Amino acid sequence: xxxxxxxxxxxxxxxxxxxxxxxxxxxxxxxxxxxxxxxxxxxxxxxxxxxxxxxxxxxxxxxxxxxxxxxxxxxxxxxxxxxxxxxxxxxxxxxxxxxxxxxxxxxxxxxxxxxxxxxxxxxxxxxxxxxxxxxxxxxxxxxxxxxxxxxxxxxxxxxxxxxxxxxxxxxxxxxxxxxxxxxxxxxxxxxxxxxxxxxxxxxxxxxxxxxxxxxxxxxxxxxxxxxxxxxxxxxxxxxxxxxxxxxxxxxxxxxxxxxxxxxxxxxxxxxxxxxxxxxxxxxxxxxxxxxxxxxxxxxxxxxxxxxxxxxxxxxxxxxxxxxxxxxxxxxxxxxxxxxxxxxxxxxxxxxxxxxxxxxxxxxxxxxxxxxxxxxxxxxxxxxxxxxxxxxxxxxxxxxxxxxxxxxxxxxxxxxxxxxxxxxxxxxxxxxxxxxxxxxxxxxxxxxxxxxxxxxxxxxxxxxxxxxxxxxxxxxxxxxxxxxxxxxxxxxxxxxxxxxxxxxxxxxxxxxxxxxxxxxxxxxxxx
Length: 526
Hints:
Layout: H1 4-12, H2 17-24, H3 28-40, H4 52-62, H5 76-80, H6 83-89, H7 95-105, H8 112-122, H9 124-131, E1 145-156, E2 163-173, E3 178-184, H10 189-203, E4 209-211, E5 219-221, E6 228-229, H11 231-240, E7 243-244, H12 256-259, H13 262-270, H14 278-293, H15 306-314, E8 330-335, E9 341-344, E10 346-350, E11 359-364, E12 368-373, E13 376-382, E14 386-389, H16 401-404, H17 407-417, H18 419-428, H19 433-445, H20 452-458, H21 471-474, H22 477-480, H23 487-494
Parallel strand pairs: 1-4, 4-7, 10-14
Antiparallel strand pairs: 1-2, 2-3, 5-6, 8-11, 9-10, 11-12, 12-13
């Protein structure tokens, strides 16, 4: 069911009586009944514009029985049933949303136009209160900047042929409406902080308060009272002396100065233009923001150009830039693995072994990587693009003992034992020191069992041997120089034979049949 006025509005717009009846759900005879006085008065569709007030006056003349406003609204009795519900919702909800809820939840058949007229006539105070808007105070120069991303469109890189989605980083100073625009491909943390630094450099100063959207690159956890700011963004704000005050989630009106120009940026700067590279695009955006957007006549400024207002009023009020440029850093979170390394990008960096299994914060720049645990700096490395950086001091001493015993360490320890031990170690490490390092370490490891005097005596013949002296050649240094019979001599004594001479064994010719040397004298094995 619909209002009588809607019948006249549809008919006067050029629709036939059949179309009006079918569209509004009214019988054609009812439509002809109400339209007959209009046709008799010479009113035809497509004439001079007529509003609802004009039709209401004519209806009072043609149908005196419906002179009262409520009588010519057929749907009002149905809406009256929900008066209390509507009155309550008007305090927090728009008229359109209330009509949608009544239609979906309570099967209201009245159209949105009829519902609006009912609210305007029956609840005038509530309707007027819902339309009241509060004018914001004028923004002080240099006090605020509003930041957001806006989608520009698709772009094919002529150099690679790849298709990219291009986004515009936009920072607007609300006082002067002057803006900074920087097209980017990735909306990551690095692009976010780099764009801020470039904007401050272009403006020649820093606004005191930054009002960004709740993007993960700027805000880790949105909250009305205590938002958690991203570490990289917080570091940038601290360096420049600005305060980060994110807009409320799902409240674009908290930053209208940057939301409203997005279509203008897309239509004026982006549409129909060709760019050879991302750098070319960013350079053209700087020129456009200064000459085109900065020179336009801005109605909120009384027709003045944003750039002129910025130079005259806002630029002197900005915070000065620091003496040194901001060092761009990436922050990430990593877990220390059993190998005491954390992965940052494509590189592994070692941290102290006591942090195994702990989560740490990593700050990486172009030249340096810093690892923090609970806010404390625990490790610093020189940055490496790919590979592994390991500080062996991060391992437990017992785990890294072998790797720490370098050739220099071996020579130093051998010098402490004596000159002969030093000669043996030097002889071992003279050629292929890396492969003979374990042998040298084995010799020096005998210090755990034997005294330095015994080890020095055992090393006496080392350099004169035909091959390097190895640890297993040492045997027991304290026993090597004792006058102890050999195993073969003990067997000969048990058999009643004299001991074998200790001189060199004479040369013996091999057996003519087997080619093996004959067995030496002594008892045969059973």
